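Homework help board

Subject: predicted structure for assignment chain

Our instructor gave us this sequence and asked us to write out the predicted structure in token form, then describe one feature. I got the tokens but I'm not sure how to describe them. Can anyone check?
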Amino acid sequence: MDYSQPKPIGTVSIEENGNISTEKPWEPVTTPVVPYSTLSRPNGFLFAHGSACTSLATTSIEGHTYVSDVHIFRQDGNSVDVDRYIGSITPTNTLVILKISSSQILHHHLGIKDPIINNLPADKQRQVLNILGTRETS
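My token output:
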């Protein structure tokens, strides 16, 4: 397994974690906007999916401690690609946004019944399902 270090993208106010938070800790959120101001909207942006809990940090199998985990799905040419970002609290109580290596992208929250997938064109639905490792059932 690749244990590459995440790449810092920028720092934002800790309050921006609220863009993908709910009252229930780590409840998945899907949004049609990029959740952090330090991330520019990528070409072909489709949606963002993730979860967060500012008061309850977690540790990934790669050893990253974080309070938010966001996947940005985007159209890249004729296919769909995904980028993963985590948010980690700094000693100054801000949130550093880190880009995760593509080999460390896990999709443990997004399901085939998520409405955002059903709202995509059919070819993009198939591609997102393939990224998730899910087979279509028709």
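Reply (TA_rk): Your tokens look well-formed. For the description, you could write something like this. The chain has one domain: 7-109. That's the kind of observation they're looking for.
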